[in-house]
Design goal:
alpha+beta, about 30% strand, about 90 residues, single chain
Length: about 90
């Protein structure tokens, strides 16, 4: 289901990706149990980040991205460094 990043976060979806991204690439928002979110997104795109010598995950300030970009919920395999147990996983 395609939605905006703002809609995904409002629905409690912490992991999402743009449909055209390569397989295994996604962002994670830090969601809290009270329905709020932190100011950072974490980008997981290990292959590109290794080539560019960026860290994985790569922190990105939420307010610096297009919050209205079309995204879909990420349901693929989690990156080995994505170990946060967030609100989304608790409600499943």
């Amino acid at each position: 289901m395609i939605m905006t990043m703002t809609e995904a976060i409002a629905k409690g979806i912490a992991r999402f990706r743009e449909p055209q991204w390569t397989e295994g690439s996604y962002m994670r928002a830090d969601l809290f149990e009270d329905g709020t979110h932190g100011p950072w997104l974490n980008l997981f795109d290990r292959r590109t980040q290794e080539v560019c010598e960026f860290p994985t995950p790569q922190p990105i300030l939420l307010y610096s991205v297009n919050k209205y970009a079309e995204v879909e919920e990420y349901k693929g395999e989690l990156d080995k460094d994505d170990s946060i147990r967030d609100f989304e996983r608790k409600r499943a």
